[in-house]
Amino acid sequence: MKYKHNTFIRICVFVTLFVLIAQPVLADVSFSDENDYLAGKADAEYEAGACGGRAWFLIGLCGGIFGVLVAYLNKPYPSISFITGESQAYINGYIDGYREKCLIIQRDQAMSGCILNTAFVAIIYYVNTLE
Predict the structure, then answer these.
(1) How far is residue 36's CA from residue 30's CA, in Å, rounded to a whole number?
(2) What does pTM read for this prediction?
(3) Which residue from 29, 59, 64, 95 has the least number of CB within 10 angstroms?
(4) Which of the 8 DSSP states describes residue 131?
């Protein structure tokens, strides 16, 4: 009976030491992945500033509400040349950040074009009703 008690104590000590030693190592890995993800997202948001805002304005201007609908349905993809050789967490962050930023730009610019289109149509309609 005494032998089983010693084995149980050894196992408990081993598990406790393993948890205490492995915990900081596992925590560093998760922080590293999170830092890579956030770095990729920040880089993508910076580089996504030139993802065709003027083109989306023209699409909203010429297409009206249909241009806005296209802007909401379109999913932009980043260039692969920026993310080659990076970690998977960085790539995931880059893709997420690029898509979020480009979708915001697309929707805002298309909506601005649509509003300007509506204003032009309203002015033309108003001028024609005065005659």
Answers:
(1) 10
(2) 0.66
(3) 29
(4) -
